[in-house]
Amino acid sequence: MLYKELLAELESFADDGYRDFHKRLLKNENIRVLGVRVPQLRKIAKRLVGNVDELLSFPDEYYEVTFIKLTAVSLLKWEEFIKYVSRCVPLIDNWATCDCFAPKCIEKHKEEFLPYIYTFFAEEQEFYQRFALTTLLHFYVEEKYYDKILQLITEAETDEYYYVHMAAAWLLAELIIKFYDQTVEFLKATIEASRKGLEVDKKTHNKAIQKACESFRLTAEQKTYLKGLKL
Fold first, then answer.
1. What is the Cα–Cα distance from 135 to 2, expressed in whole angstroms?
2. What's the confidence (pLDDT) of residue 124?
3. Phi, psi of 224, rounded to the nearest 5 degrees
């Protein structure tokens, strides 16, 4: 498939109203959006999964084209996926593309993918770090990785990057929900550090508590207690 053919197909599914709505959600005026809904994009990506090299050669002038590229790569088996992931992460320039790039093959190769997560995180760029954190959220929230996850949350560039802050809060909220007692101890330690005048990430701390309290998986009593831990 030539790029102009893909573009023509996308334009045939474009919806101006959805384009305007989605562009507002992306909050990035530099991103060009055609207005094609996600289910249709996924259908196209699934059909083109055998043409990843050609897809990756296409220009990234539209949100939908990049979305299809990353979705197609995410559908590959592990042995193929790992060849392309380092070419894909630099293409991410918004939260929606980042959060939808969750290759299922990582589920069975967590240990092998951890070094990639650390490498992307170390780039200290907004969507590199968000991808690292959302990948942890999608696949790694279990006891075995608990300490590693907390370490990256505390090291994340949450002051400088809004979308890193939100991902870190989302991930910390999931830890609160799944590992309530031990994560409450972490929150209390943060409060104690703040009382001693040490610099702590108050906004991520509070946002995580807010997001955890929005979950139906905690009891009313747990939510009341958590709200008392806000800084």
1. 32
2. 85
3. -60, -45
Kindly calculate the radius of gyration of the chain based on its CA atoms and give it in whole angstroms. 19
- In single-letter form, the type of residue at position 177 comes to I
b/e burial code for range 51-77 (CB count within 10 A of at least 16 → b): ebeebbebeeebbbbbbbbbbbbbbbe
- Return the pLDDT at 1: 76
Angstrom distance (rounded) from CA 73 to CA 69: 6
Q: Along the chain (231 residues), what's the average pLDDT of each consecutive run of 10 residues?
A: 94 96 89 96 96 96 97 97 97 95 97 98 96 98 97 96 97 98 96 92 96 96 97 94
CB 200 within 8 A of CB 193: yes
Residue 113 CB coordination number (10 Å):
21
Pull the structure tokens for residue 115.
Answer: 């070094």
Tally of CB atoms within 10 A around 142 = 11
Predicted pLDDT at 17:
96
- How is the chain split among helix, strand and coil, in percent rounded to 5? 75, 0, 25
3-class SS at 78?
helix
